[in-house]
Amino acid sequence: MSLPMDSSIAAGPVSTGRLDRLLAIAGRYAVSASGPVATSGAHFLISLVFVREMVAAQFGLFSFVMVIVPFCMSMIAAGLSLPITRSLNSEGVPDARIVATSLKMNLLVSGLAALAVFTALMVLEAPARAAIMLGLYGGVMSCRWLLRCFANARGKVKQAVASDLVYAAGLLATLAAMLLTNHVSLTAGGTLMLLSAIAGLAPFGFQTVRDHVHALRVGRLGDYGPIFRDLTRWSLLGVLLTEVTVNAHAYLVTFLAGPGPFALLALGQLLMRPISLVQGTLPDIERPVMTRHLKANAPDRATRVVTEFRAALMTVWLGTILLAAGLLLWAPDMLLRGHYVANDVILVAAITAAIALVRNFRAPLATFLQAAGEFKALAQISTSTSIISILGTLVLLVTLGPIASLGGIMAGELVTLYRCHRIAADWKRAHA
After folding, report:
1. Residue at 182 is within a domain
2. Contact present, 77 and 106 (Cβ < 8 Å)
3. Which of 251, 286, 276, 275 lies closest to 77 in space, CA to CA?
4. Domain total for the chain?
5. Enclosing domain of residue 335
6. What is the C-alpha to C-alpha distance for residues 333 and 197, in angstroms, rounded to an integer?
7. In the chain, what is the straight-line distance between the N-terminal and C-terminal CA atoms, in Å?
8. Would you place residue 132 in the very low, low, confident or very high pLDDT band (cuts 50, 70, 90)?
9. 141, part of any domain
10. What is the value of pTM for the model shown?
11. Is 121 in contact with 135 (CB distance < 8 Å)?
12. CA–CA distance from 332 to each of 117, 130, 316, 329 (Å)?
């Protein structure tokens, strides 16, 4: 008769293995998220100063810039970074011709991003110099984002994180300079933010300059046509429609009601800034990881990354909720300074937190579907949900006001989550 196995001995290696894996996951996210968290913290602090020191209209303009610039960055990632990621071979090396074309396009698209931000601000009657500085800021940030995505695609995560840290340090220096000189304004803030974004290019080194010079000589804009037709038209459409789904209220409220009313909604977004930035950044880190697993015919590993991704988002979300609650309960004057009604701010923050919670479940699934090449399906999802968001936001804005308009965004997010879950489940069954 065999002796019973000692359960503590049997469980030891398993427990140790699980602990090692947990520590490895935590380490990966600690490195990957350190840059976004630092950037988020810097954005939060500078926004905190701006909401106190600026009138609502100026803070609304600044907040609108913080909506439209990330949109430009997402378009860069979908249109130029994604082809590089999809061209990775089994050793993680991208196709040189696609890299050259993407880098050449980067200069063109970044210039267009700068022009778009400048034009939007001028339409909203921002000061001309502020519009110029913030427009250039949008262009430089878009260029930096592609370089950051390129570094992640090549496995140079520390280089990407270093860029984030330098940019965040520049923003903190900007904040200190404005406070020491007692000169907080939209123009001064835009100028110093532009300098911080330029400094964030430094960690990519002179090799980046040489890569762009090489791309200007050998890259062909005409080569982007097949890339657009076969791949990025769907991803770009998906980003465009997702932006409508996510930020319809920002555009509608700002252009229909003005930057002043949008400032209240922006205050709620400010309180949720840490989680929103991580939600926007981690997909660019995790997408290449999922892509490599799927190309290696290991869908279970890609699915495991989805679970880890979601857990990381929930951790940051909980921390963000605690931070926001602490500010509103124990230091409301530090944030509001009499410019806003406290109950309105709490209501906006609660709705924004609920929307962010839904996105914690939607973002990992959407990233998985991107890694699986389901761009057309994602674009089709975004087409229908963007209509829901626009109509819902517009109706609620006109009938009940700016705060209620957030309900249109929530409706679009819930429909998107449901449809992403269905498509991901169908994909997994088909590839089981």
Report:
1. yes
2. no
3. 286
4. 1
5. 28-430
6. 31
7. 41
8. very high
9. yes
10. 0.76
11. yes
12. 32, 29, 22, 6
